[in-house]
């Protein structure tokens, strides 16, 4: 996005005034011959491709792309880009990426299972600041819930592996979530 497009997008997504309607936004930010979902995919892919330095601008681009996707919808073709973003440590929007992946309703997808598994065990630098006194592990927890929703034998196997985590909060979250979803789980010794 160029500077004008970014300003227009920020006004549309984040302005409380509500002066820029969706119709006006789309007229002023033309997507050319692309469908709306292809246009969102292009913006998302560009944000993912440019997310290489770990700068605040990287996180802002990813956040903007995700918010446009939440507003206009993600396409199943976005799965690979979203999984790459979930694995990328150079931004701070991983929870949003989980929600975006879940919005695709991919069902029993092995790639998604593997991505949620990796994320459940991730320790991104920015999370240290967000954990605070309570030791909250929301990103890990959301990944664990994602695996429970998939509920394939592979997902259950990954939950069992996660349950061996050295972090008590993660172990207890796996136990809690598997009980909620009535999943059989073989606990590692």
Describe this structure as you would to a colleague.
The chain has two domains: 31-105, no CATH class; 107-189. It has 189 residues and is mainly alpha-helical. Helix 3 (36-50) runs antiparallel to helix 4 (56-72) and helix 6 (94-103) packs parallel to helix 9 (138-150). The longest helix is centred in the middle third of the chain and has 17 residues, at 56-72. It contains eleven helices and no strands.
Low-confidence stretches: none
Helix-strand string: HHHHHHHHHHH
In total, the number of strands is 0
Average per-residue pLDDT, rounded, comes to 89
Helix content: 55-70%
Main sheet record: none
> In percent terms, what proportion of residues is strand?
under 5%
**Number of separate helices:** 11
Distance between the termini: 51 Å
What best-fitting shape do the alpha-carbon axes yield?
A: elongated
What is the CA-based Rg, rounded? 18 Å
Q: Briefly note the structural class of the backbone.
A: mainly alpha
Number of domains: 2
